[in-house]
Amino acid sequence: MTKYLTPEGLEKLKKELDYLEKVERKKITESIRDSAAQGDLKENAGYHIAKENQSFIEGRIIQLKEIINQAKVAGKKSGGGVQIGSVVFLEFENGKEKFQVVEPEEADILSGKISHKSPLGETLLNKKKGDTVKFETPDGVKKYKILSVE
Question: Strand order in 95-102's β-sheet?
Answer without folding.
Answer: 113-115, 95-102, 87-92, 140-149, 132-137
